[in-house]
Amino acid sequence: MNKRAQRLTTLATGVVLGLGAAGAAWSEDTLKDVMDRRGLTEKDLLAAAKTYVPTGGRDEFVVFASGGQSGQVIVYGIPSMRLLKYIGVFTPEPWQGYGFDDESKAVLEQGRTRGKDLVYGDTHHPAMSETDGAYDAKFVFINDKANPRIAVIDLHDFETKQIVVNPFFKSAHGGAFVTPNTEYVMEAAQYAAPLLEDGFVPLEEFNDKYRGGLTYWSFNKEKGRIDPENSFTLELGPYSQDLSDAGKKDSYGWGFTNSFCTERYVGGIERGRPPFEAGCSSKDTDYLHVTNWKKAEELVKAGKVKKEKGMYFIPLEQAIAEGLLYLVPEPKSPHGVDVTPDGKYIIVAGKLDSHVSVYSVEKIMKAIEEGNFEGKDPYGVPIIPMQDALHTQVNLGLGPLHTQFDSKPCVAYTSLYVDSQVAKYDYCEGKVLDKLSIHYNIGHLMTMEGDTINPQGKYLVALNKLSIDRHQPVGPLHPQNHQLIDISGDKMQLIYDMPLPLGEPHYAAAIRAELLQPAVRYKSGWNSRTDEQHPNRTRAGRETTERTCDADGKCTTRVMGTVIRSHITPEIIEAEVGDQVHLHLTNLERAQDQVHGFALYGQNVNLSIEPGKTASFSFVADEEGVFPYYCTEFCSALHLEMQGYLLVRPKGYQATEVSMVEGTLYSQADYDTQVKTNLETQAVIDQVVAYITARNFQDFPTAVALVEDATDQLGFAQESKKKSEDAAAKADWQNAMLWANQWWQYQVKAADLGLRAKNLLDEEGATVNK
Ligand code: CUK
Ligand code: CUA
User: Could you tell me if 503 and 591 lie in one domain?
Assistant: First the structure.
């Protein structure tokens, strides 16, 4: 047996005997030694033990955090706080090919605003889709505050599928929040602006012409897409609508949106006026907006709502007349509004008030039924007396912002921005239970599934705005700081700091990891952004490059190619200057994580082609030249050889009849040696195949996928074998040797896949067939 085949056999034997993992070398240190050396206390060790996930282990919860100005979503695990992914949403993300392949460019293009391509978003509030008020692990929505948009991420593959642009607003903060069955995704405007006109309206006409608003985006769960056709927007007063939350259980059918700057103050330092901050915080109360989306939906369905700018639009007068909108005073420049898990209370945190105000849904509904109003706002919206709506107020400290809930009944946590603390309290009784100082100014906080009907308790994350001196300094711009807090006991305990180096996350949502079931691969030839079979998919052996020209002499070169370990087909693409080039590459792999990338010199392209995916790239070959391309993922031992050339010929170029001069020449002896290796390799493969097929591998979908890929590779090996034998029959030793080597390449990949399948079966405890 020669060396190459021997190595493979050793590998196979190693796997059979399970030698790989045994005998990991630990240093001689005791726990005490390490504690002394690193200056750790017992408390530190306890915290470490609570967060540490051993190698190969998994986290209990998965967090989807807004990526702030990065326009992305950050995914990490709890309790380890290890980063798992950045999902490209409003911003191109090259690793995932997001914004680089034609399919995802089409998603980003949906987010064009005023005809402009935007390449970032200011993401604030991710919302997980819900069924009956609990996370169903299907979708995540997130807003862009700067450009009023909502994006839809599908948790089947963690990809952004859709971006919708609000036709009315000029900013949108109070989104995304979902209704209990994801019937709608709420998005409230922030800075008042003219809703129906996009042109100039002087600020002097602020009170009359500027407006706020609240959009209920209709979501089609089957299709996994927002349906703008059935969405509607409520016109609101020109207050700065801030956060929202949807009612649930007892408050199902209603939405709650708070606001600040109900003073309707317009600043203008340069006009000699005090700034916005003074004029927008001079009153003691602002307004909580109470909206009846169920009733609004009925009006829409009954054809009683008109469309403006292509979307159902409910003007203030209609909302008032139909009883869709009420106001409740709330103190003072409020920020967060959060509905309790039972839907009975609404907790409002006023930035400039040391209390949280706990409103009773029952009392609000009673006031509405009885017509108990203390007056109307300047636009005629009825105002419910604050005292008649309040359940209680709890004095927590300075700068209350956001609230989340515990699995324990009546227990809530509110962030205190100015005090840099988390307050734990009983909102039923109105009692403070505990306070914990964090580092430093906290914005949102998040408990596990803490905005659903069944919060999971256990952990809380403080999403801090300023990390100041907590982490290694990296210049004037510091990382953000997420702090993990153990809330399982009576006293909160701070157990971990995680610097976040990507934008300022605002809100986040954590879901039990076990609920997530993402895909391992796509159906072969899949457009992952539309979730349909790709019209330009290709199968193995069907790859084509076609050049067509129309009557005006405009030419198109279209490549329908494939990628599989370890080659791109085609390896040579020829086009002519001026051609429109379309590249469509399908990944033929099925094995888990067997992704290939694609980069092409000078064309700003980087594709990520996961198993089954078809990704495309289009460009105009505007200059003649030589453009190497290659796979950008280290996908196999011969990854660096996964390469090719795009040749852009000058116009009218005539190829001369010069045949390729070979770099190396091979003899019959080379061929014979190679064939010997191949036959020995085949013997190893046969062993592995026998091992797998003797077991119930069919019961393990991952193993089945690996076996399918291996079978493909063996099929290709057979084709190459045939070609090498044909060449040998003609004594063409050059081609005989090269095809024999290709035959071996396919065998190696088949063996690698087979060993992975075998390994997996051992780990899963597969049983021998009877
Ligand atoms: S906001 Cu940033 S900390 Cu947009 Cu929810 Cu409060
Ligand atoms: Cu495919 Cu590297």
Answer: no
- Give the strand order in the sheet containing 325-331: 240-246, 254-260, 285-292, 325-331, 382-383, 375-376
173 CA closest ligand 1 atom index: 4
How many angstroms separate the CA atoms of 733 and 740, rounded? 10
Work out the average pLDDT over 351-377: 97
Whether residue 696 lies inside any domain: the answer is yes
Q: Which of 25-29, 227-231, 236-240, 453-457 has the lowest mean pLDDT?
A: 25-29
The whole domain housing 757 covers 668-764
Ligand 2 neighbours by CB, cut-off 6 Å:
596, 631, 633-635, 639, 642
What DSSP element (H or E) covers 254? Answer: strand 254-260
Alpha carbon of 90 to ligand 2 centroid (Å): 27
Ligand nearest to the CA of 567: 2
Q: 691 CA to middle of ligand 2, Å?
A: 28
Nearest to 251 by CA among 128, 187, 338: 338
End-to-end, the C-alpha distance of the chain in Å comes to: 33
Q: Does any ligand 1 atom lie closer than 6 A to the CB of residue 351?
A: no
User: Residue 13 has what pLDDT?
Assistant: 46
- Does residue 25 belong to any structural domain of this protein? no
The reply to whether 540 and 485 lie within a common domain is no
CB of 443 within 6 A of ligand 1: the answer is yes
Of 587, 586, 578, 573, the C-alpha closest to 545 is 573
Q: What is the number of domains present in the chain? A: 3
Predicted pLDDT at 18: 41
* Residue 659 binned pLDDT confidence (cut-offs 50, 70, 90): confident
The pLDDT value recorded for residue 4 is: 53
656 pLDDT band (50/70/90 cuts)? confident
25 pLDDT above the threshold of 60? no
Long-range contacts, stretch 415-419, CB < 8 angstroms, 24+ apart: 415/349, 415/442, 415/443, 415/444, 415/445, 415/462, 416/442, 417/351, 417/441, 417/442, 417/443, 417/465
Residues 372 and 316 in one domain: yes
Question: Across the chain, what does the average pLDDT equal?
Answer: 94
> How would you classify the pairing of strands 72-78 and 307-308?
unpaired
pLDDT of 535 strictly over 70: yes
Q: Does residue 566 lie within any of the structural domains?
A: yes
Q: Are residues 360 and 382 in the same domain?
A: yes
Task: Give the number of the ligand closest to the Cα of residue 258.
Answer: 1
In a domain, 726, yes or no: yes
Residues 453 and 408 reside in one and the same domain: yes
Instruction: Kindly give the number of the ligand 2 atom that is closest to the alpha carbon of 631.
Output: 2
State if pTM tops 0.90.
yes
Nearest Cα residue to 80 out of 455, 494, 500, 496: 496
Residue 304: which residues within 8 A CB-CB, separation 6 or more?
A: none
Query: Are 306 and 395 part of one and the same domain?
Result: yes
Q: Given this model, what pLDDT does residue 20 score?
A: 42
Atom of ligand 1 nearest to the CA of 125: 5
pLDDT at 16 over 90: no
Angle between helices 3-17 and 668-693 (to 10 degrees): 10
- Based on the fold, state whether residues 222 and 329 are members of the same structural domain: yes
Residue 22 confidence (pLDDT) above 80: no
